[in-house]
Amino acid sequence: RHPLATFFHLFFRVSAIITYLFCDWFSKSFVACFVTILLLLSLDFWSVKNVTGRLLVGLRWWNQIDEDGKSHWVFEAERVPTTAASTEAEARIFWLGLIICPVIWTVFFFSTLFSLKLKWLALVIAGISLQTANLYGYIHCKLGGQKSSSRVTSRFFVTADVPKRQTRTISEDRIEEHVKTGTR
After folding, report:
1. What keywords tag this UniProt record (predicted)?
2. How far is CA 118 from CA 115, 144, 163, in A?
């Protein structure tokens, strides 16, 4: 069980949304609101990408640059599934938070656009970008780790410079290396 990871998985996300909704009530400074929300979004991105994804669902993704300067996306999934009831509940919380928050930021985008509050548009786009980047990474980890789903994901997700074959090979080689050496 990872109650602290579950708490922080939702805390930064919900805090950014609540701050966005009610910031004008507490502060008249646009810059203070903007920086606070952007800081919460950044903390959420970092904690989900580096901590909660690994602890709650056993998935991890990152980008690495090789010696030639080429970018390689690496997507990992643990091979041993956990079956504890508390872990299933934590996994549901993880995925629900990961899916619902980008939808909320998309609603904010349209409401900001139609209400002509264009100064908030950059912040909302940053929220959408950070939230969907994590969603994309973890969906790719989840589906890319399964051999049968790898063909399906290649139709829906396009990586910028790296073909899917190379991405899967790097990920599988990295996992096998970790399994052989016993490191993580």
Report:
1. Membrane, Transmembrane, Transmembrane helix
2. 8, 38, 37
